[in-house]
């Protein structure tokens, strides 16, 4: 791993495989570190002949934090949007898309297959919208369009985004993270308990940035409905979505696929809002399959 300068900020980046191979840029979701991309998936993509890049988004993990911007006022942000005004936020999802392009620039990669999960899917969509010349293919996983008419998250899953640990004690924070992962995870592929707890603790010890997650959430809310913008995407596109996703319901994936001409839709029974190890080979095959079109 290494810290690079990209888009004017420092971004923690890891690369795998032969740089001479086609690049896959993995973009992770809200408050999630690069470590949430299973290394097994990374290895599966490398085995299929890709140069794989995963990185920490700004404000999480080991990338640059924006603590000077403070805690966003979500009520004021929503009020501004409802009034047709530009909300006061630390940065936009477009800025985060530019970060991804900065990572490619720093690594000397001209074009890549862009793969994003959850908020990372939104960022990947914006890369395809604003930087089409850099995109070989687009894969949007467990993400959505920002269409306000879509069904919301299930109440327990929404609570994962809106609640906080009851104390700053490390064990309390880890247990909160484990419970959150179980709530939004795949009912058909439940995570092994010890492995899940080990991963959550390792991520906490690597970095803990709850206010960064809130600033990212503000960027998501402010980005609004992307459907009209997605209509202009020309990159071959794959949408992957779990049929049992409690956080971003399946309708979000269907709306994404329906908004991009020629997009393929892969729905997976039993998959929730995570990347189960049992599905790694299927997802790698799907990414490799769409890559053949780009």
User: Any idea what the CATH architecture is?
Assistant: 3-Layer(aba) Sandwich
Structurally, the number of domains stands at 1
Please give the number of β-strands: 8
Please give the order of strands in the largest beta sheet.
1-2-4-3-5-6-7-8
CATH classification, class level: Alpha Beta
Instruction: Give me the oligomer status.
Output: single chain
Question: Which whole number gives the mean pLDDT?
Answer: 96
Largest pleated sheet: 8 strands, mixed
Structural class: alpha/beta
Number of helices: 11
Spatial extent as radius of gyration: 18 Å
Please trace the helix and strand order, writing H or E for each element: EEEHEHHEHEHHHHHEHEH
Helix content estimate: 40-55%
Distance, first to last CA? 28 Å
Task: Tell me the layout of helices and strands.
Layout: E1 2-6, E2 9-16, E3 23-27, H1 39-47, E4 51-55, H2 74-82, H3 93-107, E5 112-117, H4 119-130, E6 135-141, H5 155-162, H6 170-184, H7 193-206, H8 210-223, H9 227-230, E7 237-242, H10 250-259, E8 264-268, H11 280-291
Structure overview:
With 294 residues, the chain is of the alpha/beta class. The protein has one domain (2-152, 210-291): Rossmann fold (3-Layer(aba) Sandwich). The chain is 41% helix and 16% strand. It starts with a strand and ends with a helix.
Quick structural overview:
The chain is of the alpha/beta class. It has eleven helices and eight strands.
